[in-house]
Design goal:
The chain is an alpha+beta fold. The chain contains 5 helices and 8 strands, in the order βαβαββαββββαα. The radius of gyration is 17 Å and the shape is globular.
């Protein structure tokens, strides 16, 4: 089933396509996709907003297909769940990633290791050609480090330590991370929800 992903990020397309490989969802991107302005309250609302926006844009272009969108973020216990849905613009929308990561690590410096808990959250929203909407969630708990660890992955991966493997997501290869990550868990939940397992 041809499925357009609501992103202009080729890296995200490649990552999610790998997670959904072997399924009936054949991912593509729409060059004309225009991001809607996201809200600051809910991953579910944002994922559906992006999926519905892309669906409308495709229909305007005469394309009838499934659409998929995701919204994700990192939540720190010491920030009462922040930055959460604002993770992508944390410390300012134009802040480069090295400074953004430094700011996040600053939040937990001096905080005991056991109190530096965090979770990654991912919501995926699929709109089928008949208009039915499927929404799933994936999450993974870990803690924030006070030093960058690893060069794999992207975003907050080098500061997200996952105790079961004793490493950050930045220290493990993509295939291993996909088996453990919030986005990987959401992808598997999505396939289960549509009976494609």
């Amino acid at each position: 089933m041809k499925t357009y992903l609501a992103t202009k990020n080729a890296g995200k397309l490649a990552e999610i396509a790998t997670m959904l490989a072997g399924s009936t969802l054949e991912l593509a991107t729409y060059p004309g996709y225009r991001d809607p302005e996201e809200g600051h309250e809910s991953y579910v609302d944002n994922a559906l907003l992006k999926a519905r926006a892309l669906r409308a844009q495709l229909r305007d272009a005469g394309i009838d297909a499934a659409v998929l969108a995701d919204d994700s973020g990192i939540e720190l216990d010491v920030l009462d769940g922040g930055p959460g849905v604002d993770s992508a613009i944390y410390a300012g929308a134009d802040t480069p990633w090295p400074q953004r990561l430094e700011r996040l690590m600053d939040e937990v410096r001096g905080v005991p290791e056991h109190a530096r808990g965090a979770r990654f959250v991912c919501i995926m929203a699929l709109i089928l050609p008949d208009g039915n909407e499927v929404v799933v969630e994936g999450e993974v708990r870990g803690r924030i480090t006070t030093q960058l660890q690893g060069t794999h992955g992207f975003g907050y991966d080098p500061v997200f330590f996952y105790p079961p493997i004793g490493k950050t997501f930045g220290e493990i290869p993509e295939a291993e991370k996909n088996a453990l990550s919030h986005r990987g868990r959401a992808a598997r939940a999505l396939l289960a929800a549509i009976g494609d397992v």
